[in-house]
Design goal:
With 365 residues, the protein is of the alpha/beta class. The protein folds into two domains: 118 residues, Rossmann fold; 232 residues, Dihydrodipicolinate Reductase, domain 2. The chain is built from eleven helices and 17 strands. Strands 16-15-14-13-7-12-11-8-17 form a nine-stranded mixed beta sheet. It has a six-stranded parallel beta sheet with strand order 3-2-1-4-5-6, with helices on both faces. A two-stranded antiparallel sheet has the order 9-10. A hairpin with a 3-residue loop joins strand 11 and strand 12. The N and C termini lie far apart (59 Å).
Length: 365
Amino acid sequence: MVNIGIIGTGVGIRTYLYTFNQMENANVIAISGSSKERAEEFAKECKIKLACKDYKELIDLKDIDLVCITAPNKYHYEYAKYCIEAGKNMILEKPATLEINQAYELNQLIKKSNRINIINHQLRFNPYLAKVKEIIEQGTLGRLYYIKIHQQSTGFSDKNLQLTWKLEDKEGGGEILSMGSHLVDLVRFWLDKEVLTVQGNMDVVIPKRKSYDGTLKNVTACSFFSSSINFQDNITVNLSATCSAIGKNEFNFSIYGEKGELHFDLENKLIGYFLDNKGEEQIIPVDGVTKEENNNKISIFKGSFIYYAKQILSAVENNDIELLKNASNIEDAIENQKILDAIKKSAITGKMIELNKGYLCNAKG
């Protein structure tokens, strides 16, 4: 049995507690929130044994085997640093930090640790998305040249919603961190190649919202972002996401190669077209998908954490970090942050941002 502590009462309750409560070898024994009162409220409601006054009290509990840091983004660095130095196994919500120098500091601390320290980029463990990586690595698609990924949700489409930290730049809000970090990590997981150039755009969509005191205030974090990223070997990647869509929630992508292509959406799942099959539509069989995900009864993000959580619990039980070799770590967080920073800088300046300048693209024609 793995004893778990959750820091944060948002995604910590909706995703982490929801998932761990379904698993026989997981036992959520403690929670902390923005106040002791809030922690007590959720502990009572969710039947959690301990309500801690703050993150330090939770991390210092002797019986905790795994700490889940799901607090608002601006607290990630502070809480993660304390957890690493306390020698606890940790899963940290994305983005790992708001500033890249903070991620570098965490990396140095983790190098001295023999504990599990991972980032919650759960899409890597989704069977459909893991299958994509397998197909790419097998060379079935041939040389890749274009990938596009789009995600949308309707959470902030209502202009009457109050201003929250998720829409304030200084608080670590914005779709570029909320969703862009997932999309950047996923494509890096698939390709395992360097990024050469980045172009980006951002939009707040709804420029003003009412604050809690009733006054109208400027929205400072984006509700939409898009980017064009040029990877090594002349692979163009377009990423986009909005949390202010008016239609339905969506997650879809297309991957184009010289010998085949893959397409995914929530209704049709994974479909391929291959030269060897005369370009006919082919449903890609994928094992291990839950009924909830197949029937779209759960979001792909919440659903993906179920697969990830099983691996995490097994790694903690067996004290075997190798069981999480495909997990996103702090070094991935650093590379992701470089790209996210470049997207933001490009959106602000209107210029293309160069990364890894020493590499010459082998594009022809």
